[in-house]
């Protein structure tokens, strides 16, 4: 048997249908325009320092001369000079303050520290219901002042403590403790008893009395 050498007929590849969209005709591509916007910058200033100096010199010279007519920018300079010339003396800070900034100066911390505000009076524990309080007011004492002729003494009364016991002043409650024995107490009692005078004491007393008697007789005879 012989093998057949004939090739089978080649089949053509399957064709893929093109992808279709909802649009019936293709959209034409629109290229971007070449017209770009150019930023217009202002030309650089060519004014030098001399021009600015001349401007300030003209403003100052026109402001100092009373006969010259003021320009458009001169009234501002005149107002600033007028406001700076009118000042007010601050006694608390000991310096001159412009009147335009006086309100702001009063609210500053430096002025508040320098100002001498009256201290708030501390309230007393006594009032009109106290007899001594009313008596002091009738004698001319003022509530804000202290005691004394110049009012510089003590204002508040001396603090007291209610005494509820019958002990003496300065008495301290201490627990009881044994300080003496019975024999010590007896010896101390015997010492406190009046002792009869000795012979020497009696003789000394007799000599003193005799001397006083002789001196009295001598004084009476004179």
Automatic annotation (TrEMBL):
- InterPro entries for this protein: G_patch_dom (IPR000467), GPANK1 (IPR039146)
Region of interest: Disordered: 1-85, 188-222
Q: Molecular function (GO) terms listed?
A: nucleic acid binding
Where composition is biased (Low complexity), the residues are 58-77
**Where do Basic residues bias regions lie?**
202-215
Q: Which domain of life is it from?
A: Eukaryota
The molecule here is called: G-patch domain-containing protein
Where does this protein come from, organism-wise? Lichtheimia corymbifera JMRC:FSU:9682
């Amino acid at each position: 048997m012989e093998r057949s050498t004939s090739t089978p007929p080649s089949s053509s590849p399957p064709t893929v249908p093109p992808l279709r969209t909802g649009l019936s005709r293709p959209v034409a591509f629109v290229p971007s325009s070449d017209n770009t916007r150019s930023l217009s910058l202002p030309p650089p200033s060519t004014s030098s320092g001399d021009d600015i100096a001349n401007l300030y010199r003209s403003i100052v010279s026109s402001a100092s001369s009373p006969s010259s007519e003021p320009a458009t920018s001169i009234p501002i300079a005149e107002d600033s000079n007028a406001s700076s010339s009118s000042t007010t003396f601050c006694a608390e800070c000991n310096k001159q303050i412009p009147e335009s900034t006086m309100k702001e100066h009063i609210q500053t911390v430096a002025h508040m520290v320098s100002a001498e505000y009256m201290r708030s009076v501390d309230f007393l524990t006594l009032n009109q219901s106290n007899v001594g309080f009313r008596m002091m007011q009738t004698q001319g004492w003022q509530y804000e002042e202290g005691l004394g002729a110049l009012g510089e003494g003590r204002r508040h009364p001396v603090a007291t403590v209610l005494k509820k016991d019958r002990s003496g002043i300065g008495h301290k409650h201490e627990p009881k403790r044994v300080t003496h024995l019975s024999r010590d107490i007896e010896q101390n009692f015997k010492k406190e008893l009046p002792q009869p005078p000795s012979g020497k004491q009696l003789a000394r007393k007799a000599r003193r009395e005799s001397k006083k008697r002789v001196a009295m007789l001598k004084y009476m005879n004179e």
